Amino acid sequence: VGMPQGLGPPDMCYTVKTSQSGLLRSVVSTSQYHYVHGLEVSSAAAIAAYFVELSRRMDGLASGTFCCFDAFSRVDLRIDFVFPGSVSFYAITPADPSKKHRLDEKAWTRAQVSSTLRTLSLVRGHSVERLIGAAADRAAVGAQAPLPTRAAESSFLAAAESVFWEGVKLGAPAGPATRAINHLTLGLMEHFTSRCRFAHAEAFFSKFRPEEPEVVALIARAIRLNPAGNIARGLGLLAASIRRLAGHGGASQLLLIEQSQLLLRLGEVTTAVFVAEQAHAAGGVFGPEAAFNLADVYAESGQPALALAVLNCGRLERHA
């Protein structure tokens, strides 16, 4: 199990095949493994169905173990399958890999979300076929498109909603994670925007706005990326959240960044520059994003020299 970082390693399937060999027809066992991407890891039944599918394609398949890392709890889920139909499932931890722990419904939910986020991150900008080709020199890969049906998507979104506030445990691609920006929220945003489901993104993230004002940044981003987005509504939501945080003595770089981008889209270039400068001066974990944003706003306002000056100030690593 070890201690993987971020979303953890891809799902893996270990299989054992038996065959008879030689004059005495001795039973010979051979084992192999392959990575699995795109499988809905929501229950033992779903994994059992995968093993049944494998048995149709692999002669002599006798048993197997499916491994799925739960990135929230940092444990490894194991599903053992012995033909013709014995299934057992449990979790193991880095502290004591020899001890098997029982799985509850929440463990399956976390595993489903972890597995889906890993697949979404792997195929970002790549086709499943390209993913298979890229991994062919390392190990066999069983891959399918993530969330291929509306039913699969609905199941994933319901699971993601139930563990939304645990997303901070997953970390972020770069920099520290927050409740609004982490592997879960960025994976969800990538899913929605890659499928042009901007209204769905607004509706989903709006559920969490009352508890966390910075979630409005995600809603505003969905509005900004939507060709038919209501910019005035986005600016109104951002202004309300900024006031709410200011009332508690805080300031949000994230909200100011999105506010400046919406102002740009509205054509309010001078105001956008002012807000972007505020975000950059505010300091905080989103310093690199604020710098990139300020450079972008300067460039859009016809000040490329200032944009280059900002970019040359130091090393910049963005969250997304």
Strand arrangement, major sheet: 5-4-3-1-2-6
- Radius of gyration equals 24 Å
> Uncertain segments of ≥5 residues (pLDDT<50)?
134-139
Q: Into which percentage range does the β-strand content fall?
A: 15-25%
How many H/I helical runs? 12
* Relative helix content: 40-55%
* Terminal-residue CA separation: 28 Å
Task: Characterise the protein shown here.
It is a single chain. With 320 residues, the chain is α+β, with helices and mostly antiparallel strands. It is 47% helix and 16% strand. The protein is built from twelve helices and six strands. The protein has a six-stranded mixed β-sheet with strand order 5-4-3-1-2-6. β3 and β4 (75-82) form a beta hairpin. The longest helix has 18 residues, at 105-122. The two termini are 28 Å apart. The model is unreliable at 134-139 (pLDDT under 50).
